[in-house]
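Troubleshooting: if your tokenizer reports a length mismatch, compare against these two reference records.
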Amino acid sequence: MTDHLSLPLRLPETHHDAHERLDEFVQHVATRILHLRWTPEYLDDIHDADYQAWTYFDEHQPFEELDDHALYHSIHGEDPPADFELYVPSRIRRCILQKVGETLRSHADRRDAFYAIQRVLPTHKIRRIHRRRIKEQLWEDGEYLSGGYVDVLIDQLNTYYDRHGRYPDTYFELQDPPEYSNGALPYSADDGPTSGQAVNYHYDENEQSVTVKVKTPDTVTPERRGDWSWHEHDLAGYDAFYTLTQHGSLSAPEFQSTWRKNGDHIHELSFPVEVDNADTDGDAERVLALDAGMRKDVTAVVVEETGEQVSRPHFVRVTDRDGMRRLHRERQRLNDQLAELRRSGRDHTAAFKTVQAEYERVNTKIQHKREQLTHDVANQVVALALVYDVDAVVHEDLRSLSPPSGEGGLSWELSSWARREIIEKIEYRCEYVGVDVDRVYPQGTSRSCPRCGSTGHTCKSPDHTEEVWWGGHFRCDNARCGFEGDRDYIAAVNVARVFFSETDGLDHGFMSSYTGDSETVPARRSVGTRLAFGRGVVAYEPERTGATAGGGSAVITPAVALSESNADGGDGCGPATRQYTQFQRVTAEHC
């Protein structure tokens, strides 16, 4: 199997204005082309097409249907000359159609999820408790939908219900035509590195440098072939880019823009590299078992098929839950204000637009924090898998989620959303390094003693004995055993017991026990291009290349970052590229 890793290379400031024009041009033209194809028929047809998205379209027809004068007016705020006609080079057209097609495919998937959810909607607004009921009904009906689609669509449906007092009949009632917020342009529809008519690129392995030529418009509204120019750049190579090219081959890059924290607007070419994933034999003798809890993001423990537990439990926590809670409360407050303005018929006022803009700002900050959270936790888990040289990472099936009582909205949001995202990021990292990822369907994993197999109960802490359903401490009810321990640790061990069992449940002949404590905390943020790990069994410092612990070691090479597609695929990203920290197996003496 293969996967795509990617590294964005920053384009120099010497042609910043030219890149700005390309970004604005693509944003406006792609949005209008998308709106022309925003119909049920196009979503139906492109959903069934499994080839490159741009080939679904007639290359010329969408641009012939484009209202050039309306486009000119929207960009410049004035009427164009009477003879104005937009000129778009052939390969730029294909790249824009690739961007539009990918967005339509994404919405075709979401539309399928919408109609599946529509069948099980209540007659009132969806509350937190109903989310689980909706998911359970979908699973019982055989509709195993992406949890991401379900959660995003439920939020959209609730917003629609606040405004209209009912749910929409069709997906197009719920979802307005998307508008691109940037001019990201996939070059996968061009003619290759040396023959491309939109971008050329060459990587010099000896010099570790990249030479690229990018075609950009001389004006945002070009009228002729002569209004397009080539700009050449020599980009210094990065160690991470060199490492990636040693493992695979370059693919067509994507032009993209981003804002730095200092306010600078920069442009990049993101180069995917196709790499081979390591093979696995599917015979697991040692596993890293995971439990995603309410108070800890992940609890991990290593167990062998003999029942021997070979590691201490490792508790991975995010470092900025307080910040997430503040942002969550602020978003909820703004959402309540928007709902009240809608109910009072003031959703067309300036006040509504102001609150809406603030809501979007807060929501963007939450999304960025979530992204950092999931990548940091996933990197910790994969590092542990390599440190202990496991054959598989095992987690509980996400359908076993239950909303906690009294934990507040953020805990439920983190537990449901973050579990899914963390597991997805663990899966594609493990594919690359040759570690299987399996799921089990546990029942009562946090209420079964891993030492004697008896049932137990949870309480607030080791100092309490009274049962609390969502307590963090486990006590075995068998008086002759008396085993106790952290609830999430117990659940992680029991996940391993289910995995090694010959049945789909807990095997009372398979016992394991261990006492100890360890905490692995991700750093608040990545340090430069390298991921920094906090204290714990996996210790990594930016100036070092290795981390040693347990029965082995893991090398963590520089992080490879890129912009991933947002929830609705609206940024038009090209190949399935990933934000990635590359892990490699090494022996301890090489560290």
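Reference record two:
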Amino acid sequence: MRKLLPLIGTPSGSHPGGRSAMTCRFRCGDACFHEVPNTSSNEYVGDVIAGAVGRRSMLRAAAVVTVAAAGAGAAGVVQAPRAAAVPATGGPSTGAPSAAAASDAARRAHKGARGLRFAPVAPNTTDAVTVPEGYRQNVVIRWGEPILRGAPAFDPEKQTAKAQAGQFGYNCDFLALLPLPGERGRQLLVANHEYTDEILMFRGYDAANPTREQVEVAWAAHGLSAVVVEEDRGSGKLTAVTRHQLNRRVTATTAFRLTGPVAGSELVKTSADPTGTKVLGTLNNCSGGVTPWGTTLHGEENFNQYFANSGRATDKRYGIGTGASERKWERFDKRFDVAREPNEVHRFGYVVEFDPYDPASTPRKHTALGRFKHEAATVRLTHDGRPVVYSGDDERFDYFYKFVGSKRMKRGSSRAVREHNLSLLDEGTLYVAKLTGDSPALEIDGTGKLPKDGEFDGSGEWIPLATATAEGAVSHVDGMSAEEVFVFTRLAGDKVGATKMDRPEDIEPNPVTGKVYVALTNNTNRGVGSNAKANEANPRHANKHGHVLELTERWNRPESTRFAWSLFLVAGDPDDPATYFAGFPKDAVSQISCPDNVAFDPHGNLWISTDGAQLGSHDGLFGVATRGERRGELKQFLTVPKGAETCGPIIQDRRVLVSVQHPGEIDGASVETPASAWPDGPGTYVRPAVVAVWRADGRDIGV
């Protein structure tokens, strides 16, 4: 897998992490161009990831010789695989592979860790979803496709809010694929719709003067979709089952319940909801998780950008501006105007729980998990059946958290059992992480140079912030009430000295080993000016490529308050000495930049999707072995089209799913001047979509 391809082109735009200015505007409200919200003096867990280059064992070196000797592995990185070619129309290829391609793919299949035996996709800038040789793909569902009864076919020139409320939403992100008992060959797909990009949605869009119809379409395009999908028995192809009774849309105007310690607080009461328990809508749902009791969790991330006209210090800590919002929603609903409705903003920034098996259920916002920019919410159970939820706060120099529930999950499917389990995230203790390196501070200089002990590692503790019970809530932070801790969680983290991280995003426990992996996307402000310097957990200054941290709870018990940590992967060009791949030889790995969402396959391999890659190639999906002699062996599985981000990966035995988010979101693009023709070819609207990938021979992925 030696990386022979030179860097292609230049990263899109000049924004941090390689994002286009358009993406920064619409997804996070130009967060990276605003003052860093965290101005506390906490020690920063900086960019220490880069230097563990010298830890190559003889065994791993021998593995490289084996890979290089295969020859074909290197060829697979030099050019985009022929079998991944896309027709001129821009639609994905689903035909049978040529005999030569099938033979070549078979010849390479035995190389690599189990689950990762495929010829890696080369870095590229193709306007398509590019997959390995011997694999096929299809678009499962696109923005605007009808999923509810009575919803019309998508007509991009005549969009209405009523139509969009029955159609698949915009900018799909997190995905969950759940079993559907009694319906053979069908599963239930749940998708987040993070944000809207009105410039690519509406012809002639005037950002300074949006119309009410455009705003209401955008409200309807946010939220969640639940849609039944059916597999083709002769392939891995998935198609949406329209108008199924379980199909559902949740939007920015759907009724939610506010639950947990903040429900009914004076901090969340509004003129429209004097009870402080009923909220309209969910916004900017990024990643999420699936609970052991059969529901899905969804993290409200960059909610700040939808609100206008704030002047409070608490709002500034969350990045909420003093002027108008990008989308101007405050012109059409006063709840988005902080000056007129000061508490509405306190009702966003939570983890949402959704019951996809009950179309009549009311989704909940769990305040006991804290209020911040939740990237995700992933669950594991303690030995006695209590839930533990991990979540990152996706902001430069912010923190990552876990919640340890106090109530045990019940087994069964009765209504009483489901109601009990839906309350599990309302009682328990919220913690924030503090990390300490084990090397002298002088050995961490921000270059990624490895300390003398040969690795970036250390210990950590979970600091309790507040505990919620059925009788009430107790704060563990001096000077803050429990309600204040749960509403102003970032400030609570500041007070207790939590470790400042480089944009902690998705956090996933490995179902095979129990180790927890934290994706830290990047932080170009690390060590710049007066910003916090590098430390052993975040070891590089001006960290544009990000890293992945591996965390081991004490005794491997998720409720523990102590842990050990090490840097598993330091992203970037493998030729850069300030990169690290768990000690695996770097001339045998794919290049990776800006890790974002993470997931696991049935073999315990970590799969990483990227956002804003800074190496000249499009974003993609990568698999990496986490154990055994091939630990750290990383291979690129796919790339996404121009301007797109790879989101929501699901890795099953015989299928991989990804969300292709914001394709064509390149500076200067619009409906009139599109930057991408994906997925339906020239002359059509660019549409975010879900894609399924499978092996052409029907066998398991990567074996």
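Descriptive notes for reference record two:
- Confidence is low (pLDDT under 50) at residues 1-14, 43-109.
- The first helix runs from residue 21 to 28.
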